[in-house]
């Protein structure tokens, strides 16, 4: 009984939230890693691209809500997602035409792209705050829970309850579907293979007649879609605030680098590594130890390794360790 | 006139000229070999013929047509194929995917050509699902040649196809290249192993400092005492 309670406790506060958060990071990191692999630079604007795409989704969601359109138990945002992706893709393609294309023609060094992307990041930052404001925005609707703590306790008779939010369920399912679709695209279609070829060996891809403009365009569209999906899922799960999305850049980059930059499988693994580490390190184990320890003994302190305010340091530490010990990441990526 | 000819090419990478009035050519179904010391400009001459660098005088002709102004991609479409000296495969893609990418410009069924490549290089058929980056040096060169053959080219250009492979594998590769030439494809090849290469060459070029030093049949060059002394190690 005690053991079961302890396990449910961990599932409720670590496993379920980390799975959801990890899926969101994985989707974000996939976008970063694709851009790195194919366009060959670290896109610092990715977090704000997520914010921009999510903002578009929110605006469409509000519009649908005002017309009385909804998905019943599911959030209306899912319906707005394709529209948000289209807007975000359009925006990202415009930045490519206005900014990055110039540097591509110059065959600029990667660091110049990075700085350019920082510029794009600031512009995006401003645009998003100008349109939707710097504050928290609520846009989740529909059913809130798949499993409620109270009904779980009544149903199992356990002391601990398990909560699974609809947003968490949707996050995990969407992530699985999106990743499956992405891998199918990259491994089975002509265009997807040409993107991998371009990423592997640009010169040889050109010699083989692969059109670089098309590869670049498709890459941006996919990155925009991934960013919008990741951002919307995160917003549904937590809340939407532009600054939070900017901050997400760190764990997302950590995830992409941990997995091995340029390696999509690595990005997914990295997302979960970062999410689980962050949540496990900031979780207070007091109650858990209470269940596991014999008798009624319970530790006095919270047994929390790190306050949640410091959660970003977890990404930093992991990033540092990986860069020191294994610069190409867990899965063979490109060395940074 | 030869089927493919880079005629009196002068040019380089933007700085000082590397090539000076350099001429190389290959005839249909023939093997032409370029030899010469390191840094002589052999790779540069190949790139010039393939349109990968600017030449400011001279021209490149293919089957009587002036293609000097065409991009490398356009030359691929015209029936030329090039295996670069380094980075000549897609390392994280499978052998079969490498071949598919070679045929990227083709819209017809490529299965027959893939089968022909596997017939030419049986080991590639066995390893078709394996990533090219995981193969041995000799196998990787076979993938590189196979990829280039996927466009069903009329001219195949090879820059040191036997670099870094064992003598046995080298003989094996040369045999395959002769086989390819017998199907009517012109071969223009740079080789470090000058003696063995000239042995199978119909025509040979000795390049020194971006200029033609000797041009003759492979056999004549092998018998030329000056060439032997300076370039074939006696
Ligand atoms: N990408 C390049 N940019 C500038 N110079 C180059 C480049 N590649 C080769 N060179 C120079 O051109 C000359 C000829 O090189 P290369 O054609 O590679 O010789 P080879 O293939 O005969 O060994 C060398 O002096 C080399 O330093
Ligand atoms: Mg060379």
Automatic annotation (TrEMBL), chain A:
Main localization category: membrane
Stretches of the chain forming a coiled coil according to its record: none
A GO BP entry: L-isoleucine import across plasma membrane
Domain of life: Bacteria
Protein's membrane topology: Multi-pass membrane protein
Protein name as annotated: Branched-chain amino acid ABC transporter permease
Species name: Paramylibacter kogurei
Organism phylogeny: Bacteria, Pseudomonadati, Pseudomonadota, Alphaproteobacteria, Rhodobacterales
Localization per record: Cell membrane
Sequence similarity: Belongs to the binding-protein-dependent transport system permease family. LivHM subfamily.
Chain segments annotated as transmembrane: 6-39, 51-71, 77-99, 111-132, 166-186, 215-236, 305-325
Any one cellular-component term (Gene Ontology): plasma membrane
A Pfam family this chain is assigned to: BPD_transp_2
GO molecular function, one term: L-valine transmembrane transporter activity
Keywords, ordered alphabetically: Amino-acid transport, Cell inner membrane, Cell membrane, Membrane, Transmembrane, Transmembrane helix, Transport
InterPro entries: ABC_transp_permease (IPR001851), BCAA_transport_permease (IPR052157)
UniProtKB/TrEMBL annotation, chain B:
MF-aspect GO terms: ATP binding; ATP hydrolysis activity; branched-chain amino acid transmembrane transporter activity
GO biological process: L-amino acid transport
InterPro entries documented for this protein: AAA+_ATPase, ABC_transporter-like_ATP-bd, BCAA_Transport_ATP-bd_LivF, P-loop_NTPase
Keywords of the record: Amino-acid transport, ATP-binding, Nucleotide-binding, Transport
Top-rank lineage group of the source organism: Bacteria
Gene3D superfamilies on file: P-loop containing nucleotide triphosphate hydrolases
Pfam family, one: ABC_tran
Residue ranges of every copy of the ABC transporter domain listed in the record: 4-234
Family: Belongs to the ABC transporter superfamily.
Full protein name: ABC transporter ATP-binding protein
């Amino acid at each position: 009984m005690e053991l079961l309670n302890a396990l449910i406790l961990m599932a409720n506060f670590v496993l379920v939230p980390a799975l959801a958060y990890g899926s969101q990071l994985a989707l974000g990191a996939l976008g970063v890693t694709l851009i790195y692999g194919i366009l060959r630079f670290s896109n610092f604007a990715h977090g704000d691209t997520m914010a921009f795409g999510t903002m578009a989704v929110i605006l469409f969601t509000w519009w649908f809500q005002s017309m009385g359109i909804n998905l019943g138990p599911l959030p209306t945002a899912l319906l707005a997602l394709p529209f948000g992706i289209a807007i975000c893709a359009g925006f990202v393609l415009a930045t490519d035409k206005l900014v990055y294309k110039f540097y591509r023609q110059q065959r600029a060094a990667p660091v110049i792209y990075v700085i350019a992307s920082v510029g794009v990041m600031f512009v995006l930052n401003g645009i998003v705050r100008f349109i939707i404001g710097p504050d928290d925005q609520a846009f989740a609707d529909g059913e809130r829970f798949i499993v409620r703590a109270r009904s779980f306790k009544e149903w199992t008779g356990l002391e601990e309850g398990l909560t699974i939010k609809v947003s968490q369920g949707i996050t995990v399912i969407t992530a699985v579907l999106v990743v499956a679709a992405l891998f199918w695209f990259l491994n089975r279609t002509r265009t997807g293979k040409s993107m991998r070829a371009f990423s592997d060996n640009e010169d040889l891809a050109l010699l083989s007649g692969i059109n670089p403009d098309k590869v670049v365009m498709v890459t941006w569209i996919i990155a925009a879609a991934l960013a919008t999906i990741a951002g919307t899922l995160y917003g549904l799960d937590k809340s939407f605030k532009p600054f939070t999305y900017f901050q997400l850049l760190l764990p997302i980059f950590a995830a992409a680098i941990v997995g091995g930059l340029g390696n999509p499988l690595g990005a997914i693994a990295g997302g979960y590594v970062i999410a689980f580490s962050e949540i496990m390190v900031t979780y207070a184990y007091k109650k858990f130890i209470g269940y596991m320890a014999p008798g009624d003994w319970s530790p006095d302190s919270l047994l929390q390794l790190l306050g949640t305010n410091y959660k970003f340091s977890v990404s930093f530490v992991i990033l540092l360790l990986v860069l020191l010990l294994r610069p190409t990441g867990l899965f063979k990526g490109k060395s940074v | 006139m030869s089927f493919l000819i880079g005629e009196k090419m002068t040019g380089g990478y933007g700085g000082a000229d590397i090539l000076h009035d350099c001429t190389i050519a290959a005839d249909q179904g023939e093997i032409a070999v370029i030899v010469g010391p390191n840094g002589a400009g052999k790779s540069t001459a190949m790139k010039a013929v393939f349109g990968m660098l600017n030449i400011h005088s001279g021209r490149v002709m293919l089957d009587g047509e002036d293609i000097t102004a065409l991009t490398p991609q356009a030359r691929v479409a015209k029936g030329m194929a090039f295996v670069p000296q380094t980075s000549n495969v897609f390392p994280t893609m499978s052998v079969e995917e490498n071949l598919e990418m070679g045929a990227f410009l083709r819209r017809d069924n490529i299965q027959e050509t893939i089968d022909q490549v596997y017939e030419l290089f049986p080991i590639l058929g066995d390893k078709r699902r394996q990533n090219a980056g995981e193969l041995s040096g000799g196998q990787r060169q076979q993938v590189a040649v196979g990829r280039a053959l996927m466009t069903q080219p009329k001219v195949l250009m090879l820059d040191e196809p036997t670099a870094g492979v064992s003598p046995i594998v080298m003989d094996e590769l040369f045999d395959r290249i002769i086989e390819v030439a017998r199907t009517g494809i012109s071969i223009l090849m740079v080789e470090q192993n000058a003696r063995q290469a000239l042995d199978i060459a119909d025509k040979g070029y000795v390049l020194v400092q971006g200029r033609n030093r000797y041009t003759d049949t492979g056999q004549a060059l092998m018998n030329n005492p000056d060439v032997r002394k300076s370039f074939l190690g006696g």
